[in-house]
Amino acid sequence: MAEPIAKYPEQTKGYRSITKEVAEKYGVTTGVDKSEDKYRAYPYPHKTKYRVLPKDFSKNLGFTNNYLFGMDKFNAGTSRAITIVEGEDDTLSAYQMLGEKWPVVGLPGAKISDNLLQNCFKYLDSFESIVVATDNDEAGNGAADKLATVFPNKVYRVNMTTHNDPNEYLVNGDAKDFLFAWINKKKYVPEGVFNTPEQFKEILSTSEGNEFIPTPIEFFNSAIKGLMKGHLTILTGPEGQGKTEILRLFEHHILSTQPNVPIAVLHMEESNKTTLTSYACYQLKKNIRDPEHSVPQVDIDNSIEALTKDNNLFLFNFSIDEDPLTILDKVRYFSGACGCEYIFIDPIQQLSYGKEKNQSEEQTLTQIAVQLERLATELNIGIVLTTHVNDDGQTRSSRMIGKSASVRIDLSRDHMNPDEDIRNTTKLSVSKNRPTGRTGYGGTLYFDPSSFTLKEMD
After folding, report:
1. Out of 105, 115, 136, 407, which could bridge 66 as a Cys pair, Cβ 3.0 to 4.6 Å?
2. Residues of CATH 3.40.50.300 domain(s) within the chain?
3. pLDDT tens per residue, range 205-236
4. CATH code for 212-456?
5. Region of residue 3 (phi > 0: left; psi between -120 and 50: alpha; otherwise: beta)
6. What are 5-21's pLDDT values in tens digits?
7. What is this structure's pTM?
8. What is the C-alpha separation between 53 and 43, in angstroms, rounded?
9. 24: nearest Cα among 10, 34, 39
10. Where in the chain is the domain with CATH 3.40.1360.10?
C-alpha cells in the first residue's frame, strides 16, 4: 500500500506558466519546503488529489476518479459551452488561454469511468455544447468517443496540432494558437461512421447474429431464443393479464443468472419497494407481498443484497410532470453512463401524462415508440416494455407502439374465472418476430399465490 504524502506548508503560487490568479481560482496549492516545491494539491469536489513533483501520483490513498476536476468552480449551465481536458494542469492552462471566460474542467484519468459519468451527467448536460481538448491518442480519442455517445450532437473536438496538450501550448508561448484551434472546433463524430472501401469490405466480411439472453420460459426460448438486444420487445394485453409480473420474471432472471449484465427498471404503476419485494419473492420462494408474511426483514434485505451485490440493477422513477420525451435521454444515460444492456418500462402509456398541451397522447406515444426502437438498434440494447391494448387488440392510444416493436408477445388470461388454476394461468403468443421470424404459441405460465411467483407449466 502506498504511504501517505508528507505534508509541507502550502502556498498559492504560479507555476509552469500558470498564473497565481488562475491557481487561486481552482484552489490549487503547492507544498513548499525551504523554497523547494514538493507537491501540488488539486482539490476535487470529493477529495484532494496530490502530485508529488515532478510526476508521482502514488500517494493518493482513497482517491477515486469519479468527478471532474474544477466542476465545483462553475455553476451548471452558466455558459453555452464547457471544455474538458485531460489532467489538472491542462485544466488551468486551457482556462487561462481562453481568457478566463469559459468554464474548463479536467478528467482525473485517461479513461472515463461509468461512475464519473453517473456523477457528472446532469452537470455536463446542462451546457449547450461540450468541447473536448484531449490528446490525439488512443486514450484521448476514447474519451471523446464516450462523451459523444452519451451526449449526442453536443460534443466538439479541438484539433491540437502544434502541441499535444494545453499546458505545452502555454509553456511554449502558443496560447493564441490554442485559442484559434478552440474557436475552430469541429463537431465530433464518434466511431461507427464508415466511409472507405476498406471499411465496407470489413463490414461485408463480418458475420451478423442476434444477441439475446434466454428467459426462464423454455418453450418461449425455443420459439424466439430469448430477449433480443438491438430490438424493442413489447408485452401486450388488456389490463389484469399479468404483464407486470411477467416483466418482473424476466428482470429477476437476468439479475440472478447474468450478474454481469446491468439492467434499468421503470415500473410506473408500483413503488420501488413493491418491485424489490417482488424480487425477494422469487429469491425466497415465499409470498413477501402478503402483509401477514412471517419472513424476517433481515432475510428479505439479505436476498436483495445477494441479488444486486454486483450493482447490476438501476431502479428509476419518472415524474408525472416530466416531459415524456426525456425517457429517451434516460435510456441513453443508462446505456452510455451505466452500461445497461436491457431497459424495462412498464407500461408505456404512463409516459404520456406529461405531454405538451398542443400534442395529443397518440402523437406523444408514437414519437416515443419510434425513437425507442431506433435507440435499441443504435445502442445495441434490449428495450422491453408493456403496453395495454383495446378491445380490438390494438395497442392502446397509439397503433405505432405495436408497429415499431420488433417482437410482440400477446398475453391471455381468464382472470375472472371461478376456477383458481384457470384464473392463475397465462398463455403467451408471439404475434410478431422480426429477429428470427417464428410466431405462434409461446408457452404457458402459472402464477403460484403461495410464493407470488410465476413458473412455466409443463
Report:
1. 115
2. 212-456
3. 765 556 888 888 888 888 778 888 889 999 99
4. 3.40.50.300
5. beta
6. 888 999 999 999 999 99
7. 0.76
8. 16
9. 10
10. 10-187
